Amino acid sequence: MNAQAPAAYGLSSEARNLHWLLTNLVDEVPGIRSVAVVSSDGLLLLSSDPGAAAAVFTAGQPGVPSGPRGSSADLATIVSGLGSLTAGAARLMDGGAVKQTMVAMEEGSLFVMAVSDGSLLGVHAAPDCDMSVIAYHMALFVGRAGHVLTPELRSELRKSMESAQ
User: Which long-range contacts (CB under 8 A, 24 or more apart) does 127-136 make?
Assistant: First the structure.
């Protein structure tokens, strides 16, 4: 699986570095199926699925397939919703900020971790994955990416995802 999006070549060095970090996360951590970085407003910023941008921006259009189930486009939608739900639950419970959410399913696992300013990292993993290894590598990604994910960079990444369609 290659996380390098075709639009990455015209990007700033910070955006290319984030693509590189995402590629390393996917390539080096066993069990990862799909990864998405989502902005606070639910837009896909980075994806392990190079075709995800087209699926996000063409979904619902007549005659255009929405992409395979479980793709990064679907993952972005789920991550955004789950992030919002858990943040609301934390507010109701006076629990402070949500650091990580994990959903264990029969056929896989879903991890959501806050990156910065409401942005989220979502990972869909195989059922036999080592959850602690995935959580550790997600925390490494967040530590490396969180401080560079500025509003300007998020805007650049959004535009690159839109142009990739």
Answer: 128/31, 129/30, 129/31, 129/32, 130/30, 130/31, 131/102, 131/104, 133/29, 133/30, 133/31, 134/29, 134/31, 134/32, 134/109, 135/100, 135/102, 135/111
